[in-house]
Amino acid sequence: MKNFSILLYTLLVSAVLFSCDNNDSTSTIPEEELYTIAKITNDNGVELQMKSTAEMLYEGVNNVQFDIENGSLSDGGVWKIMPVMQMMMNGETAHQHSTPLRGFDVGMSNTTTGKGQILFVMPSSEMGEWTMHVSYYVNDEMEAMWVLPIDVNAVEFLTPAANYKTVIMAPIPDSDDRLILGYNFLSGTPDIGNNDYEILAFRRTPAMMSHGRTSNEHMFETYTAYNDLTFEVTPWMPSMGHSSSNNEDPLASKEGVYTGLVNFSMKGDWQLQLNVKDGEQQLIEEDGLSFYLEF
């Protein structure tokens, strides 16, 4: 099993690398209490903890970091992070895929990855389990690695509908790629009144092999920041049949991140109806998929 994990990790790193020398140096996590989500000690006695601004992980955007709590690592290394969903069928691995992430560069050192965001595209279930594959490299040599099993919880709605989403995945016309969107409130949770929020946008390009099936030539899909999008966002309260005033459409603020302001005039059920374009190309129409939340 250990040899399999090392082989798998080598393949993961060759497919998707996420290191500390990322060019985006803007903080992505509000300064608030962090909760330990998972922890594991590797064969060298170095303990890694995954921490989050929320008490649990959920499908959608999660603000997290990874910290060394026991043991030590050499200075000057590079962190590499890879979430892996292992889908099962009849008790065996059917296929694997990953999910987009960004950040992990603010405050990084040999004791922490720094702060970042992971957009889990689906929750854990009986059919699939998430693990976090984290490694630390010095001079291109892997000094340490960990594989952390994690639970990603589903976001459940009191009044679900087919177009109500926490994560939006939409086809990109004339392409095999897909647009992936998630949202994050900068205060941590929505409230009555003005709320600063951000939309994370990624372009998903399929793996070279269909649906990430396991083989010696296995590769995962890739996610890149989707820039140059335009957003028009209309908050709408389905149960009351009204919108709100004094909203600001999200504008590009960082690579693949668009920041706006939404005014929730009361608590309850709210849609963020989206009109999304890439230049003149329509990707999402306002009467289509929408973010949905209840608070």
TrEMBL record:
Residues 1-19 form the signal peptide. Residues 227-274 form the YtkA-like domain. Coiled coil: none annotated. It comes from the Bacteria. Keywords: Signal. Pfam families: YtkA. This is YtkA-like domain-containing protein. It comes from Flammeovirga pacifica.
